Amino acid sequence: MNYSLQGFAFNQIRRHLKSVRILATIVIRQDNTVTMVDHSTTLSPEPIPIIDPAEPFPGRKLVRSWLVPLCGKRTALPILMIIFDFALFFGSVWATLWFSSGIAKILAGMVAGFVIGRLFILGHDACHQSLTPHRKLNRVLGRIAFLPSLTPYSLWDIGHNLVHHGQTNLKGFDFVWAPYSLEEYQALSPGRQWLERIYRSGMVPGLYYFVEMWWLRMYFPTKTYMGAQRPAFVWDGLLVSAFGLVWVVILAVMAHVTHQSLWLTEFTGFLIPFVFWNFMIGFVVYAHHTHTRVAWYDNKVEWTKAQPFVSTTVHLIFRFKVGALMHHIMEHTAHHLDMGIPLYRLKEAQDFLENHLPGRIVVQPFSWAWYFKTARLCKLYDFKSRCWLDFDGKRTSQPVASFGA
Ligand SMILES: [Zn+2]
Ligand SMILES: [Zn+2]
């Protein structure tokens, strides 16, 4: 470790940059991490510029190089986070049995659903190989953290890491909340049109996730939805099925032992957590990439020019530390720019990007009014004019200007 190099870098940066606080944090943190040796050699002593909104976009490779110091991974911290969240999960499911009031049982079930989301977010990082520095350990931790959400690890890996991250908001590839064009919508059967209206009503993001993402594409998918077949897909499907079965059976035994209603016990201890989780993740993946300022593309050349790793993603800001409670999954621009940044450093990375690329990143303070307005405006998409439409084909947003250089 070359401390003098880092000291030099630190002083250079302090003289030249307004954002010294963020970069100083980066440097100081590296002194305490195993990965500091690698990163010290890549930390440039050159000041990192703040790119004026009128200047050409600097390009993903360069921007990623600025974030290299934030890619350092830890081992004990994420393991402790998983243990802590599993304790919360088991504690809240146990609370659904312990409380006698039906309302309290339901609330405990909702807390369990939220904690399933937290565990899933830890598993999401592991699946990106960004949770710890150890690949095999990440694969094991990811599978464990995915269990309560019944997420088959290898299928999530394909659908998310390859498809969603590789081609975000590129129609025909990225399927997550991909909008129909007016022509495509009009060619749908009346039943499918009705389902699309339900999905995009803003009321049931969990239904979309459950049907379109989990049931069709992750839980023993048919060849229509997953062309390739691998033994790992089946094993991961069986693993989450076994976990779900054990969960339901333990609840049934506990209902019998504690002389409680079997159906109420299963409803509050299993169904509510699972339904809440589906709503939470359905909402999260919708809000990450659906916004009137965010474009969809059906042409790979145009998509590539548009700096899609930054321009297609929303940073949704919550009050009351809700973002931190969700393990910073909403700091999504930094995550799309470099999936190697672990969740415990995403906030710094996002702050850094927003300071250095002012005006380039879609930042949206969350409110339910904003969410339902977005759901009202973003029904179909005009891929030529690059604007959102309602179900009658009327424009509901301004065309998104080209974002690239
Ligand atoms: Zn991801
Ligand atoms: Zn995303």
UniProtKB/TrEMBL annotation:
Superkingdom to which the source organism belongs: Bacteria
Enzyme class (EC, first level): oxidoreductase
Transmembrane domains' residue ranges: 76-97, 103-120, 232-255, 267-287
Pfam families reported in the protein's UniProt record: FA_desaturase
Keyword field contains Transmembrane helix: yes
Keywords: Membrane, Oxidoreductase, Transmembrane, Transmembrane helix
Fatty acid desaturase domain: residues covered: 107-358
A GO BP annotation: lipid metabolic process
InterPro entries named among the record's database cross-references: FA_desaturase_dom (IPR005804), Fatty_acid_desaturase (IPR012171)
An MF annotation (GO) of this entry: acyl-CoA (9+3)-desaturase activity
EC number: 1.14.19.6
UniProt-recorded name of the protein: Delta(12)-fatty-acid desaturase
Name of the encoding gene: desA
